[in-house]
Amino acid sequence: MKTEILSLSDADLRKAAELIKSGALVAIPTETVYGLGANGLDPGAVARIYDAKGRPQDNPLILHLGGADELELYCREIPTAAMELAAAFWPGPLTMVLKRHCIVPDITTAGLDSVAVRCPAGNAARTIIRYAGVPIAAPSANISGRPSPTKARHVLEDLSGKIEAVVDGGDCTVGVESTIIDMTSSLPRLLRLGGLPLESIEAVVGHVELPEESEPERPLAPGMKYRHYAPNARLILIEGGADRAAEFINSRSDKGTAVLCPVEEEGFYAPKRVVYGALKDPQTMARGLFAALRELDELGVNEAYARCPGSGGILDAVRNRLIKAAAYVIDVEAEE
Ligand code: TXA
Ligand code: MG
User: Fold this and answer.
1) In this structure, which ligand is nearest to the CA of 49?
2) What's the chain's average pLDDT?
3) Ligand with an atom nearest the CA of residue 229
4) Are β-strands 94-100 and 75-76 bridged in parallel, bridged antiparallel, or unpaired?
5) Which residue's CA is the nearest one to ligand 1's atom 12?
């Protein structure tokens, strides 16, 4: 199959919607990352998503809706707090897990009694959902385990020939996936850090329960148990101050090494640098991270280093993705 590249023209967005309605797979740009979209109510189309991505069947998908007014069609027992979050942050990078309505097929939710829903921001995604008239099931449009795609080119690298089309909407503006909150129990619970900072969510619904770090073997979102975002190069994450980190990395540098760093730290390192945004604007670090992980592979290095960024706001998600991509973490302050 030849994967067609569609533009943002109205005719092409209509075509994308028609393809999805007819059971095809179309990668669509969202504000977070590109999603691999199919009609979320069509079990045959959804089955093709798992095949194309090489995704384990026990990892449920997010249903992308046109707005909060569609929640009752696909979810039940929706708590007031969920309506408040939707009013505050949709369209935007927030996914909520709610009790599932029986109209949603088992394959979309991997048999769970809950369903993840989100209303993406960004004109292309919203227009396609509206034209299609069906909720769109869409995981990130990468081969499972690879960094999520933030450009149409990344989608083609992974899925060319396996899907009917990709809508080229340019670079994703957020760059990391949505934040996922479980709203099925009495207290909202964080399942995945992402594009919407936890602080913003807590400002609306109060305390959000955090996952228990001590139980990594029991992941809360089924998808979080798999190794993610990994470049082919072995990524080693460094905890510690910039000077110590640079000293450590430079002492281990050779031709097969690269460093992933923000632009302000480019001058600190001896090995090849791959820049992923600026410390002074953390949003740019989120926006550039996945493209930078893919760039490491294009450089053909076999080992890469990155210093853990700070925390708070969007940096929590950046840090989380780096940790998930890394082979291991070294604390250079602890090494004497
Ligand atoms: O920003 C995003 O969320 C992107 C764009 C395309 O919308 N999508 C995305 O989908 O990141 P995916 O499939 O790569 O990640 C969805 C995560 C997985 O970890 C999955 O296990 C979890 O959501 N998930 C889906 N349904 C769930 C459910 N009912 N309960 C718990 N976790 C769920
Ligand atoms: Mg994904």
Assistant:
1) 1
2) 93
3) 2
4) antiparallel
5) 139
* Residue 115 CA, ligand 1 centroid: distance in Å: 10
Using pLDDT thresholds of 50, 70 and 90, give the confidence band for residue 259.
Answer: very high
Tokens at 167, concatenated: 């809508």
Cα–Cα distance between 336 and 322 in angstroms, integer?
25
Q: Among 160, 324, 165, 333, which residue's Cα sits nearest to residue 239?
A: 333
**CA 236 to mean position of chain CA atoms:** 21
Predicted pLDDT at 327: 85
Per-residue pLDDT reduced to its tens digit, 149-179: 999 999 999 999 999 999 999 999 999 999 9
* CB 193 less than 6 A from any atom of ligand 1: no
Distance 247 CA to ligand 2 centre (A): 34
Least confident segment among 118-132, 208-222, 232-246, 317-331: 208-222
Amino acid in position 306: A
Nearest-CA residue for atom 7 of ligand 1? 35
Share of the chain above pLDDT 70, in %: 94
Strands (E), the chain: 4-6, 26-28, 35-39, 62-64, 75-76, 94-100, 114-118, 136-137, 165-167, 179-182, 189-192, 234-239, 257-261, 272-275, 303-307, 328-331
139 Cα–ligand 2 center, Å: 6
